[in-house]
Amino acid sequence: MKSYKVLLVDDDIEICQMIKKALDPENIETLTISTGREARNVINSQAFDLIILDIMLDDTDGFQLLKKIQAEDIEIPVIFLSGKQQDYDKILALGMGADDYITKPFSMSVLIAKIKAHLRRSDKIKELQTSSRKITKAPFVLNIDTYQLFKDGEEIFLSSKEIMLMKFFMENPNRVFTKEQLYEKVWNNTIIDNNSIMVYIRHLRKKIEDDSKNPEYIQTVWGIGYKFNI
Q: The OmpR/PhoB-type domain covers which part of the protein (predicted)?
C-alpha cells in the first residue's frame, strides 16, 4: 500500500491530533504545524503529497501561505479547513488555486474521503505527466525530454531531423502521408523537396529496420507516399 505525507497547518491542537489519528490507519503520515512561520520553513525543506491549511493563524493567514506555495512552484493539492463559512472566503480560496474548502465543524469521514480522492487524482496527473514524455510504439520508445530513441531497449542514435521524422511517424502510426505532407508537417515547410524526404527516409530505415531493403516499419505506399507500420 502506497504511503503519503500530509502537512497540516492549524493552531487548534485538538483538531490536529484528531486528524493525525484518523489518517494514520490510512497509511498517511501527518506533520502538524501551528504557525505560518514554521509552515514556510518545512515547505522549503520537505516534500509533501497534500497540504491542509487553516485560514486564521496567529502570525499569518492561509491565503498568504497558499501564495507562498504557488511562488515556490509546488504543485500539490491544497485543502482549506476553516471556521470561516462565508461564500466570499470559499470563492477567494478556490479562485486563488486551492483544490477544496471544508468548513468547521466537519465530518472526519468526509475529510478523509476528500483527502484520499485528491491524492488519487494527484497520482493520476503525475502518471500522465510521466507517460506523456514518452511515445511508445513497440518495439520503439521515444523519450521526448531527451530525444532518444530506443528499439527493444537499445538506443538508436538519430540526427535531429531524423528524430523529428520518427516522432511524427510514431505519433501517427499506420497512416499514409505523401512526401508533401511529411515535408509540411515535420518541417513546417510547404516548399517541396522530394529528394530530401527520400534521403531522410532512407537514412532512418538503415538505422531502425532489421533489413532496410525490405522495411517492416517505414513502408512505401506506391504512388502515394509512406506510412509507419506498427
A: 132-230
- pLDDT score, position 74: 80
Q: Are 96 and 83 in contact (CB under 8 A)?
A: no
Nearest-angstrom CA–CA distance, 70 and 116: 22
Q: List all residues 6 or more positions away from 106 whose beta carbon is below 8 Å from its beta carbon.
A: 81
pLDDT tens-place string over residues 62-103 = 999 999 888 877 889 999 999 999 999 999 999 999 999 999
Neighbouring-strand partners of residue 221: 225
CA distance 155 to 223: 33
Calculate the average pLDDT of the chain.
Answer: 90
Adjacent-strand bridge partners of 228? 218
pTM of the predicted model, to two decimals? Answer: 0.61
Q: How far apart are CA 149 and CA 151, in angstroms?
A: 7
Q: Where are the beta strands (DSSP E) in 49-171?
A: 50-53, 78-82, 100-103, 134-137, 140-143, 148-151, 154-156
What phi-psi label fits residue 174: left (phi over 0), alpha (psi between -120 and 50 degrees) or beta? left
SS3 130: helix
Strand order in the sheet with 176-178: 176-178, 225-228, 218-221
> Which CATH code of 3.40.50.150, 3.20.20.80, 3.40.50.2300, 3.40.50.2020 fits the domain covering 4-131?
3.40.50.2300
CATH architecture of 134-228: Orthogonal Bundle (1.10)
